[in-house]
Structure formats: structure tokens, C-alpha cells
Amino acid sequence: MNTQKPQVLACIDGAALTESVCDYAAWIAQKVDAPLKLLHTINHHHESAITSDFSGNIGLGTQEHLLEEITLLEQQQSKLKMQQGKLIIQAARDHVEKSGVNDISTTQRHGNLIEAVIDLENDIRLLVLGLRGQIHDKQENQIGAKLEAVIRALHRPLLIVNGSFKTPECIMLAYDGSAAADKAVDMVASSPLYQGLTCHLVCVNNNQETAAQLLEQASNKLKAANNIVVITAKLKGKADQELCAYQQANNIDLTVMGAFSHTRLHDMLLGSFTHKMLVNTKKPLLLLR
């Protein structure tokens, strides 16, 4: 493995979206010629801590015996989680290898996913993770319990996977003229990930004259890039609703957005736009930092 090159990091947990996370991570790694790392984290919950509340209600000998049994049970559960994690990692590695990716590494970490991602941040080129993990696996109107915190914590592009893999051919770039959106345009124009794709540059603005001006300046940058077909669209209405509707009507395979600053992103996730895009978009969402 070439450890000098930034990696595509895929977070896997054995949930329903794990295979799709692997597929999108493999596609990206091949397009940008980057190493691929598979990350699995093991959270150890010490539920047995509540037994201390009953210390006055049971005999000392009984309590010691109970704590010994609980400790043994926790050790067994920890070993089981590690074994399950190794199986998940091996299955994911086998799956990715079939796609033709050769530069693959794996890591299993104890503790919080957010801490692991932050620790690995300097080596990350792009992070891929599922919209929902095991906790919300079958709840289509929910996002993962840790997703918001990961998005706020990481200063790297993130691809949020929400369904089965399809090789992207047509992307939508949501553009509003902000600094984050301009950075997204620059990244799309310069990255090999988007070469050969059709890019729908979409601006939602009730002032159509303003929208036209914004689209012109952004499309010029994209058209100057090699091998990107650009289609522009001006839309009116609520941004999240219009973007999701446009995505479905035009068979968009992947939506690209500039991410907000930490504070604003936190507010937006808890409030409206970004949260609604994460929940309602039917295709993967790439947040560019």
C-alpha cells in the first residue's frame, strides 16, 4: 500500500448499506487512483455500570459474584464484537477486490466512529459512509445517529450513500453563489472523479436574472474543464424540494453540494435544508468541504 497518497476511507458496520458503501468507495478509488481503506469501529457499552445502584440491596458475596459474572460476560461480548467485525471487514475486502481495486487496507478500532475519523483525517482524501447504520437500518425517514457529528467534525469531502450502487454518469451540482458552492465548482472542474460525466448545474433562486448570472459564471469554469458536459437549470421555489424533484426528473445519479461551516451546518441539519436533502434525496449526496 502506498501510504503517501491520501486514501478513500469507507466506514463499514455490517448494516444494509455496507455493500453500497464499498461499491462507491471502490468506484472513487479507481477514478482518482487512490488507496482504499476499510474502517470498522467497535463501541463497547458498559451497561453493567447500573449494577452499582443495587449495592445496598444485595449481600456483599452475592454482589461480588454478580460483578464477576458481568465482567466475564462483557469480555465475551467484546470478543464476539471483534470476531464479527473481522468477518465484516473480510467480506468487505473480498467484495472490493472483485471490483478490481488492488490497493486496499483495513483497520478495526475500538471506540467512537467520530474519534476514529478525526484521528485519520490527515490521510483522508474522501470519506464514504452510509446514510443509516445498524441502529436506523430499516428507518427510511431517519439518518444515522452519528452522521451529523461526522459531517460537522470532518474537513474532507464526504459521500453519503443511501441506496444500491449505480456507476454515476450524470451528476447534479447545487449552486447558490456562496463560497462553499464556488469551492464545489472548482473541485468538480479539477478532479478526475467527474471527468466523462454530465453535470447538471442547478440554481434555485426566485430571482431568475440573478440565477442566470450565477449559472453563467459557474458554468464557464466547468466548461473549461476537460471532458465534462454541462447542463444549466434555473429553478424557483424551496431549494430542497426543487433539487430533489429535479434529481428524480432528470435521472441524476449523484448530487454534489458545498458543505456549510460548522456552526451553520449544525443549525441547518437540525433545522431544514441539509437535513431534508439527506433524508429526501434518492441518490448519494457528496458534500464538499
CATH architecture of the largest domain: 3-Layer(aba) Sandwich
Low-pLDDT runs: 46-58, 261-271
- The CATH topology annotation of the largest domain reads as Rossmann fold
The CATH H-level superfamily of the largest domain is HUPs
| SSE-based structural type | alpha/beta
Spatial order of strands in the largest sheet: 3-2-1-4-5-10-9-6-7-8
Percent of residues in beta strands?
A: 15-25%
Supply Rg.
22 Å
Number of domains: 2
Describe this structure in words.
The protein has nine helices and ten strands. The longest helix has 39 residues, at 60-98. By secondary structure, it is α/β, with parallel strands linked by helices. It has two domains: 7-44 and 81-161, 3-Layer(aba) Sandwich (Rossmann fold), CATH 3.40.50; 170-288, 3-Layer(aba) Sandwich (Rossmann fold). The two termini are 26 Å apart. Strand 7, helix 6 and strand 8 form a beta-alpha-beta unit. The protein has helices spanning 18-32, 60-98, 113-120, 147-153, 179-190, 208-224, 239-249, 262-270, 273-280; strands at 7-11, 36-42, 104-110, 124-130, 158-161, 170-174, 198-204, 229-235, 254-258, 285-288. It has a ten-stranded mixed β-sheet with strand order 3-2-1-4-5-10-9-6-7-8, sandwiched between helices. It is elongated, with a radius of gyration of 22 Å.
